From TrEMBL, chains A, B, C, D:
<feature type="binding site">
    <location>
        <begin position="131"/>
        <end position="133"/>
    </location>
    <ligand>
        <name>FMN</name>
    </ligand>
</feature>
<feature type="binding site">
    <location>
        <position position="48"/>
    </location>
    <ligand>
        <name>NADP(+)</name>
    </ligand>
</feature>
<dbReference type="Pfam" id="PF01264">
    <property type="entry name" value="Chorismate_synt"/>
</dbReference>
<dbReference type="GO" id="GO:0005829">
    <property type="term" value="C:cytosol"/>
</dbReference>
<feature type="binding site">
    <location>
        <position position="54"/>
    </location>
    <ligand>
        <name>NADP(+)</name>
    </ligand>
</feature>
<comment type="subunit">
    <text>Homotetramer.</text>
</comment>
<comment type="similarity">
    <text>Belongs to the chorismate synthase family.</text>
</comment>
<keyword id="KW-0288">FMN</keyword>
<dbReference type="GO" id="GO:0008652">
    <property type="term" value="P:amino acid biosynthetic process"/>
</dbReference>
<dbReference type="InterPro" id="IPR020541">
    <property type="entry name" value="Chorismate_synthase_CS"/>
</dbReference>
<dbReference type="GO" id="GO:0010181">
    <property type="term" value="F:FMN binding"/>
</dbReference>
<keyword id="KW-0274">FAD</keyword>
<dbReference type="InterPro" id="IPR000453">
    <property type="entry name" value="Chorismate_synth"/>
</dbReference>
<keyword id="KW-0456">Lyase</keyword>
<comment type="function">
    <text>This reaction introduces a second double bond into the aromatic ring system.</text>
</comment>
<dbReference type="GO" id="GO:0004107">
    <property type="term" value="F:chorismate synthase activity"/>
</dbReference>
<dbReference type="InterPro" id="IPR035904">
    <property type="entry name" value="Chorismate_synth_AroC_sf"/>
</dbReference>
Length: 363, 363, 363, 363
């Protein structure tokens, strides 16, 4: 992985700024012969799309994806399939309001990448955060849709928000069917109502809130991933931490495991009808960096949106003190829209792991 | 990063099994002209060495490192310096007691990589966990010592254990001078005494304990790292999660940030004598994947040692139920010896980031 | 380098098919702050553009390049500069005549990639050769223009055709000023006239001709490149051999060196005003994989265009014998248009070598 | 490929200097379950070993290889097999006569890497050329032996010398059985006798000679390799050009193709009993960067050994003119010992291509 490319055999390179003409990605190494339509990709982009509820940014973007290469009509079916050559996807930006940002041209917004980009490059597209904008994640979601094709139907990836601000769900009430029924991807019906009130208050207060997102993958066979630096959990950690605003990643029991005893933490095994049956999943589906066949379970901590209406202390590019209020159309809780992005990153990691496993072992 | 290689310009490839003749690493891309002696590397290996207290494994390994290539006498000083060519380091294994493991040849130890390695490769060196053994981390520590040379004296990396089992330190009592004074790398004198009692009890009970380790780097200039998949925090997350038994990684405020409001989380800035001065460090020294010049702060969750004397349910390779007790000489809390390993991984990530930054920007 | 990506720190990923909606590339790792306009890139594309003389394909393509990301207004100059983020370039295809190719849908053209693509992928965009078309090289030329920015003005790269069919130039008559004065990039005025007659005859005969192209780079400082698998000449060889229709690469004296004695081949040295002065350049500017400061000299053999009007024996996808004549608008000698492409590849290799050298050594 | 690592899924990292304690390589990504013994590797090393005839260096090296990791007893057979983890191979240096080199410590030998290494690194192990010595190729040959395991018995790789100095073999007399019968890997019995006289004269004259080596691989299925930068021929070119003293690479007809017409060059096809039958192999087994199923045919030009007894003009590190005669024990024609090295590089390229092809396509 190198700057703007992710993956080894299933490789995704993204490009584009928030307020440039377009953004997109190139997917190299996708297996040939897989059915792929713009509509399939669009379905995932629509889950991430801004402007769908009052709890996400009001920017209006169609986020319409175009397939520019790598797909051609299949001989037999006549339908579009991947050809094994690079798949170039493009999403044009249509609702940029660059003037919203003119006043932050010369001042660093705390918590944003403004200062660090300037320290690195000495020049940056300040409009909407440029390359550091969460808009870049649209390209990830598009790539993730292709990765799901490479994974095939046997692997199911789905995510949910499990905490907003200090309010965590009750895992005993977890209901996947609820996840699509509220604007928060919340699996706990009661908590969804509570978050609505909490986020309305947060928004009115000109503030923002953090969140914790959980992503699970079922159907991953035992054996994917590889020791010792290509560990499946290490690659998941890298993928997740590369998502904007993510500050923590844990697998299975995660940080809670630190307080466990060896017995509590052991994922005991018994023989089952279809091979080994595990009696617990504290390891979150990975041992020694290789999948065990259990569900992969990853949680990520998303910090509160840095762009807030309330005034915070900062400095200008010239080093003068200034107080900053960030106008514009921001998500009060970026963690919500991180769900389809985290799902997409898991899909990309798994597609790559599948191809590499097949390459090395022939299975 | 690809299977057994870590890094891009400063690249580390490790090899070796727990009970093979030796283990080691090849470091490619180290800048030339840096003073490097076996003694320098040995100093770091000695921090990680087994057998140094009753709280770590009693295996007796000298862990003596040999430099096989990449170092030659300097014209001017006559002392050994790096030449820019690959540095090959080797540590011979001397205290293998492979018979300890003969009985686990055909049974999977829960929480270990036994099952998943078999699922992937169909064959494995079962002695001491083979490649999945924590002995592999000796090679990382050796590589980390070289990485510190590449970083130079301006960057200081140090780590500490901040929680063992359910017992967390009091951060108000943090004293770096204490860290070398107890067998736990504990910065809180009072907690060190408490851990001693706790781990003695754990050991006697035939059990094990988890831990949380914190690593900090100071002196890292603003500008290292790069968006969007080579983010400094993403690479740190990958590096840390690749360490045996690590199940979680967080940067700065980490998971706690999920409960913060936007104001609480903002690292406000004011102009200072030497450029920008930050009023907080919730971001842990990274924004937008690029270092801010603040201290890098990373915490990792280490699960309890999987090898315990107490019986746990498992299966054999042939799929029969069996109860497993793991004899051998194991760390009651692997988190302790993870400290020099986590420091080494941070050194490797930063050395690589430094070289890549210099490559792209000339600074 | 991996499938559709070239380079390590200066990385180019190309995408697109001959008859798809567009083609392009993403350049990752370009240093920030370099002036870059579409006009600069267009100048190089125009050198490669089809339809400029009767000796190249009559396909009419504007090859107009768009910069979609990675460039923004400079604070000081107000002009567009690179920002250090990925530069996405797109060229729309406008003059596809896909029906020309309908009859080769099911038959393999000898010498083309039709058969091997099918063997690999089982599906291919047959229109104009799809991904294997020389149109892909437009993206390389665009990337090469950016690479020249990264190299700066001190490095000059230029190429020429030195042989067409059996007719080689007289090196004693080499005149760089002639190169732009004829449609063949020929440095030998007399030979240009001869080639004109030869290629007219070739074209009328429904045949095609091979060529040898030479590319030189001056101003490359001693020290770029690295042993032993990242050798500058090895990377040049890879880059050049990746160009469509290239079947051979040689550096300096190349194949002729096989017949030399050690004395003949030695590039003797004497001290000069500005350091070492070489008395010959049989090594073509590289020793031990590292540049010597002399001119880099690379020659490539380009086979005759595979698409010819004359009938050749072949088979259909179903395995039936068939005789193939390739209509369409083809270059009678693809070697001519290989000149700007080979220059571009050299620019990309050198830009990458410069950044890596700077990364490892700080110089 | 990056400095000292070659390959993507089948990755070889070599290390070591000519006069250091040892040299070796780490092979990462080798499939598990393949029988591998030191004796197998040794057989290939013995083909390359110095001191076997008066036409190669008289340095006496056993070149005994040790397997340090990655191989373990197989459950079923009890014999040693690869485990899928890194294979570390080491060859100790035993016959270094470093004093031979003390006088070249401060003077650059023309044609050698002395000057360019110094320009890059500012420090170098001058003894025997250090890292730039042809001794490094022992590690390649060892890696190639492992690559042949990964390829399996279906693929046969073999090489021969086809020209020494100005004396080329008669291809009509090509007899593979002759190749092992003379000290030149010469397939033409008559030419072998002629080379013997020529090289004796060359050696007595204190000079050296260049050569051309041809390597062929049969049994490679159609479909390996990939467009457009991972082309099989591009990777072969890179691999071959990375061998010491190689100055040119050609595939199939190579440079001769430049003089061909389109009809001459076309590898016509007819249907055969087992799929497509080619009527010629000017493409050398690759089209569009993908194997066609025909024999792969690669030729490399090896320059004369740079170390010669005759005096050549040079300079010292301090920039003073000096005349250099290189004593020591050198190959009068390094091209001879390049044969097993070139075979090894082809094996590594093909093993990597096989795994990547399997990864992307499942075949």
């Amino acid at each position: 992985m190198s700057h703007n490319t992710f993956g080894h055999l299933f490789r995704v390179t993204t490009w584009g700024e928030s307020h440039g003409p377009a953004l997109g990605c190139v997917i190299d190494g996708c297996p040939p012969g897989l059915a792929l339509t713009p509509e399939w990709i669009q379905g995932f982009l629509d889950k991430r799309r801004p402007g769908t509820s009052r709890f996400v940014t009001q920017r209006q973007e169609a986020d319409a994806v175009k397939i520019l290469s790598g797909v051609f009509e299949d001989d037999r079916t006549g339908g579009p399939v991947t050809t094994g050559t690079p798949i170039s996807l493009m999403i044009e930006n249509t609702d940029q309001r660059s003037k919203d940002y003119s006043e932050i041209r010369d001042r660093y917004r705390p918590g944003h990448a403004d200062f660090s980009y300037d320290a690195k490059y000495g020049v940056r597209d300040y409009r909407g955060g440029g390359r550091s904008s969460a808009r870049e994640t649209a390209a990830r979601v598009a790539a993730g849709a292709v990765a799901r094709c490479a994974l095939g139907g046997g692997v199911t990836i789905r995510g949910a928000v499990v905490q907003i601000g200090p309010h965590a769900i009750d895992r005993a009430k977890w209901d996947w069917d609820q996840v699509g029924q509220n604007p928060f991807w919340c699996p706990d019906k009661d908590m969804a109502a509570q978050w609505e009130a909490f986020l309305d208050a947060t928004r009115k207060a000109g503030s923002s809130a953090g969140a914790i997102v959980e992503v699970q993958a079922s159907g991953v066979p035992a054996g994917w991933g590889a020791p010792v630096y290509g560990k499946l959990d290490a690659e998941l950690a890298e993928a997740m931490m590369s998502i904007n605003a993510v500050k923590g990643v844990e697998i299975g029991a995660g940080f809670a495991a630190a307080a466990f005893s060896g017995e509590q933490n052991a994922d005991e095994m018994r023989s089952g009808n279809e091979g080994v049956r595990f009696l617990a999943n504290n390891n979150g589906g990975v041992a020694g960096g290789i999948s065990t066949g259990q569900d992969l379970v990853v949680r990520i901590a998303v910090k509160p949106t840095s762009s807030i209406l309330n005034e915070v202390k900062s400095v200008t590019r010239e080093g003068e003190d200034v107080d900053v209020r960030t106008k514009g159309r921001h998500d009060p809780c970026v963690g919500i829209r991180a769900v389809p992005v985290a799902e997409a990153m898991m899909a990309c990691v798994l597609a790559d792991a599948k191809l590499r496993h097949r390459g090395q072992t022939g299975r």
